[in-house]
Amino acid sequence: MSLVKDYCKEIIKELDKIPVFLPGTPVSVGDVITFGKGFVKPRPIGSFDPISKLSSLGVTFQEQDDSDPDPYLYASKGSVGVSFTADANAATVGKGKLEINFNKEGATYFAAVDCKVNSIVDTSNLEQQLEPHKNSIDWKNCFIVTSVTVAKRALIMQSNSQSASLVIEGDVKGLQTGSELDVDANIALRINTYKDSSFIKDWSENVTVFFTLARYRKKFLGDWGMATKKAMYINKDSDDYELTPVYPDDLLMHELE
Question: How far is Cα 115 from Cα 109, in angstroms, rounded to an integer?
Answer without folding.
Answer: 17
